[in-house]
Design brief:
Layout lengths: L21 E5 L2 E4 L4 E4 L2 H4 L8 H13 L10 H13 L4 E5 L2 H19 L5 E5 L8 H6 L18 E2 L4 H7 L4 E6 L2 E2 L5 E2 L2 H14 L2 E5 L14 H4 L5 E4 L10 E5 L19 H14 L4 H23 L4 E4 L2 E5 L5 H10 L2 E2 L1 E4 L2 E4 L7 H18 L7
Parallel strand pairs: 3-15, 5-6, 5-7, 7-10, 10-11
Antiparallel strand pairs: 1-2, 2-3, 4-12, 8-9, 11-12, 13-14, 14-17, 16-17
Helix pairs in contact: 2-9, 3-9, 10-12, 11-12
Bound molecules: pyridoxal-5'-phosphate.
The site of pyridoxal-5'-phosphate has 15 residues, from helix 4.
Length: about 400
């Protein structure tokens, strides 16, 4: 038998990847090396807010790369100042530190809270986080996360992250002690299956943290930058945190993240925090192009309308096939299935040219480009129906 060459052997197997190599992408569509097209409702895990290779991003990167790509974070550069000003202008916070990934921004948030605890709370360092939370893959952010599968991984973890159930204010109250410096959570737990923190819970948390003189940290890495129909998800409840982290959609597809803080708690001193690529002009130019596009009049309202349309189509599908709840906000939506067939659906959808995600076996998650069209949503539903038709034979209710 001739030995067949496996082209993937040099890569570490950090996830089960299908044997497909993508070579091109435009808007909601990806193309593989055999020319097969895929409708993309994952978009780099809620990253490509304007789809694949949008003109505004390509032009911003090309223009900036001809001028200045990198000049060290030890110096100011024009795009760095401009992007920080834009984030401050559009958010409720005043100080920005740029990073390259969500985990790095969250690691920075943890450090900032601990530094603040050292300076102003007699060394308090514990950060209460939520069960099933996802904050990233550095050791501290994994420790802050509440993913059950990670409990035994890379022990010993970083200590100081007591966990409480989401939407349980009493549990938060009981977890607070002299060592508590902050409460940290996602407004919507994306990786856990799009579990929404209620407005009452968020408002209650703000009240408790104010009363106790501790910080509130919102991880808006998945929910920020227009994903839920507002620029930041906290704008739905009006709850303003002391620290917010951003990444994913912020660069529209390139690695860019930010740690944003209230001026009065922003206590890093020179040498406390840094990173070689942080604030480099190339990524900053990308971030400027994205935030300027997101904040154009009417854009976010359109995201809400498109999200409502997608929700309506998913709800109809759910009643047709006897499925369960549709959850989420804007264009971060989930559909619960009647049994644990998520991975099977994802695999079959891929064969039929559709990329969707199943964060839990019982849930499908939808995070298309924010400018996805109704026609593309209809196409996605058609493919999904055909997949459900073959997997849930007999359960359709046409
Ligand atoms: N926080 C949240 C809420 C996320 O969804 C993610 C990634 O999925 C992260 C943090 C980690 O971000 P990154 O993968 O860019 O490190």
């Amino acid at each position: 038998m001739p030995e067949t060459h496996n082209p993937f052997t040099s890569l570490m197997e950090i996830t089960k990847r299908p044997p497909i190599v993508f070579v091109e992408g435009h808007g909601s569509w990806l193309k593989d090396q055999d020319g097969k097209e895929y409708l993309d409702f994952i978009q780099g895990w809620a990253v490509n807010c304007f789809g694949h290779s949008p003109r505004i991003l390509v032009e911003a990167i090309v223009k900036q790369s001809e001028k200045l790509i990198n000049c060290s974070p030890a110096f100011y550069n024009g795009p760095m100042i401009k992007l920080a000003d834009l984030i401050v202008k559009y958010s409720c916070l005043q100080k920005v530190f740029f990073a390259n990934s969500g985990a790095e921004a969250n690691e920075g948030a943890i450090k900032l809270a601990r530094k603040w605890g050292q300076k102003y709370r007699h060394g308090a360092y514990e950060i209460i986080t939520m069960e099933h939370a996802f904050h990233g893959r550095t050791l501290a952010t994994m420790s802050a996360s509440g993913k059950p599968e990670w409990q035994q991984l890379y022990e010993p973890k970083v200590s100081g992250f007591p966990k409480v159930p989401l939407n349980d204010l009493d549990a938060v109250r009981s977890a607070i002690n002299d060592q508590t410096v902050a409460v940290m959570l996602e407004p919507i737990q994306g990786e856990a299956g799009v579990l929404v923190a209620t407005d009452d819970f968020l408002r209650g948390l703000r009240e408790i943290t104010r009363q106790k003189g501790i910080l509130l940290i919102l991880d808006e890495i998945q929910t920020g930058m227009g994903r839920t129909g507002k620029l930041f998800a906290y704008q739905h409840s009006g709850v303003e945190a002391d620290i917010m982290t951003l990444a994913k959609g912020m660069g529209g597809g390139v690695p860019l993240a930010a740690l944003v803080a209230r001026e009065s708690i922003s206590c890093f001193e020179p040498g406390d925090q840094g990173g070689t690529f942080n604030g480099n002009p190339l990524m900053m130019a990308a971030g400027i192009a994205i935030i300027e596009e997101l904040t154009k009049p009417g854009f976010l309202e359109k995201v809400t309308e498109t999200g409502d349309y997608l929700r309506g189509r998913l709800e109809a599908l759910s009643s047709q096939y006897g499925l369960r709840e549709v959850r989420g906000k804007g264009l971060l939506l989930a559909l619960d299935l009647q049994k644990e067939i998520g991975p099977e659906i994802v695999e079959e959808a891929l064969k039929r040219g559709l990329l969707i995600n199943s964060p839990r076996k019982i849930t499908l998650r939808f995070m298309p480009a924010l400018n996805v069209t109704r026609a593309e949503i209809d196409q996605m539903i058609t493919i999904l129906k055909s997949v459900l038709g073959s997997i849930c034979k007999g359960s359709a209710n046409p």
